[in-house]
Amino acid sequence: MFLWCVLFLLCVLSFTGNAGVTFLTPCRVAGVFILHIVDFCLFVFQILVTFCIREEDTGLYDVQVNSNPSSDLRLRVFDSAERRWRHLCSSEANQLLANISCEEMGFVSVVNYSVSSIPEGSNDREEFFCVNEKELTYGKKIKESLYPCDCETGQVLSLLCQDCGRRSLTEDRIVGGVDARQGSWPWQVSLQYDGVHQCGGSIISDRWIVSAAHCFPERNRQVSRWRVLLGSIYNKLTHKNVRVLEVKTVVYHSSYLPFVDPNIDDNSRDIAVLALAQPLHFTDYIQPVCLPHYGQRLIDGQMGTVTGWGNVGYYGTLADVLQEANVPIINDAVCNAPDYYDNQITTSMFCAGFEKGGTDACQGDSGGPFVAEDSLSKASRYRLLGVVSWGTGCAMAKKPGVYTRVSRFLPWISSAMRVITKELRLATPSHITYSSQNDALHCQLRAYYLLRTTTTLLVDN
User: Fold this and answer.
1) How many domains in the chain?
2) Extended beta strands in 26-127, E state
């Protein structure tokens, strides 16, 4: 505003001659032009500074480790009080610390961990954190259980997390979307019941898929009839590259209220995980997506990509080829405005789309991914920020798509995977599987037992 005031004074004082007649010269025109340019640059600079500050506030720098096996794999945690990085001193809690650290960074599992020494004379020899083992627990940031120490042995924790969020191709039911290219979104899967596409889902590890709870109503709970199709932009068995896997277990959030009472109009906690019957073999066309970093917050206006085979138009048919569309995240206050969703958006949701509509997820995209590129980490990766949940119509003005906010459910996802993995190892097969030998009622009862009793322990407050 200061520059605009200066510009106004120049116009008044220097554009008026002795006789009171305004006149312009090339120099004065150039001066005005330069002032415009400088003011615009300052405006852009202010926006960039604000954006960078908000980006840095996401906490993505708290914990770091390389995912390249040929790189330095020593785990580092940022000391916010001293404004410096510290290595993790080796302890008896190395395995638990490795597991929790990978989860905190958005990696689902640990490939390997080891102990390494800091070289003599290294500047890093006095930069250590030690762990309070009693405070170390899943679902809690590891910084809360660490304290600066000398680490007299100089032995530090090194680890390799399962990589994720990578695409073999770098090019970029979606209404207003475009056909995706083979391998462009290798974590996308089609969830099919009796051979019919019902929902999308996202690969997060070699055994686990994330989707939406509402994809598993009571009529679709015979797990032996579910199949996961992956590895292709086509969701038909006849196309090459398509792989088909059976589902071992489905777990949805026990506090997804429409399953408690169909009359409740609250789609909070619309999330589910599926355990595959067999582990995946990753290829260029089958890859896991990263989960959000613990503490990662959404950025208003950030562009993300939603993908799926849903209806191409509200009254359209399912897409034959995977569709993709880029849409911006919308501020919660805006999306809760009376002319948008009138306070229906809870803290476990977020909106993404354009005010005028035209591009959106639609029927059949449910459970699929909303991903965004993480450019802050040392290597660019895609993170699963949202799960397609609900919306009013498709691509309507001021009625954007609504997504489950995955960052709110990281502890729940972690707990579900650990509890079910333990159940699968310890329980008898008839207790934990929905095999084709069982009759429909038995399958349904077992499904209710596993889904209800397990998720009751996993409610996210």
Assistant:
1) 2
2) 63-64, 76-79, 84-88, 110-117
